[in-house]
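User: Before I run my own analysis I want an independent prediction to cross-check against. Here's the chain; please return only the structure tokens and, at the end, one sentence I can use as a sanity check.
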Amino acid sequence: MWRVRTTFVDRPGILAEIALACGAAEVNILGMQVFTSAERTTDVFVVSAPEGLTDLQVAELFEWAGGAAVSVTRVDDGATVDSATRYLQGVREVLDEGRDVADVLAELLETEPPDVADYAGHDVLELVRRNGDTLKISRAVPFTQVEKERAQALVSLVRDAKGSPARVSTIQSSTVPIVRQATLSDVDAVADLHDRCSDETLFDRYQVPLQLPMKTRMTRRLVAPTNGVALVVQQGQDVVGHGLLELVDETWTFRLLIQDAYAGGNLGTLLVKHAASHAKASGADRLTLITAESNDTLLRAVGNAGFMARIERRDGSVHISVPLAAVRAIETG
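Assistant: Structure tokens:
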């Protein structure tokens, strides 16, 4: 089964045309939702397709029927459950089972990143909790107004069973962050950066549990790689971000780490831009950024940097490939 999200010009007869096209291709419509706007409508279909029909062929079918901005993702039987029922079940899971409302919304809004070609950036939904905190949910496929209103209604209805989560602190400082090339004198600062990062952030970076404190040998490699360049972001006296640009099997790869307290800012975007500039200056025509599947922070950084990208999943990690033809040189301190 597949979930198909597409937009159409809101006119009489369009759904009949879609049904006829699906019938001719032996694609069965199992469910649908309609999200209307002023001139266009966004429809979400759950369909079953004949064995062997690919997501690309399903997308082409809906495009032929008049759809635009078509996205297709594979789903299971749970996708046919009534939407209102799913949201009510979500409220029960928060109140009775102690689940965090952010986890419930991630399932309801299906924010697990699909395999999106030509990725251009996440849509970010900001919801206000009952205690005044802001909860941010992001997704590669844009949110409709109805989805935004449903999500805000759920957040306004429930209070996290575990109590209000700690507000993510964004450190205020008049000091402008500086991106520069790392040196051996940064060994201790980079080790301290890792000590200040959460286990989840470190796992997104390394895809394995990291044993702390950092060993000097490993930290030296992070600031002085054999086949590449290390970048750091310095805020005041502290190193709050690190990126490792390396040539691996003739492919320029980049992995970054941003201290949790700064994760909501633009430091990841700055590092991505500088890494792309360094890679192009080294003769690369493409840069591959690597992170964990659960991490969409890097995806947002790529989108905010203005890069188009292609996304591929490999062995539990996400590889984001960025062409460098249009990248301009950036001066790094």
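Sanity check: Residues 205 and 291 are 6 Å apart (CA to CA).
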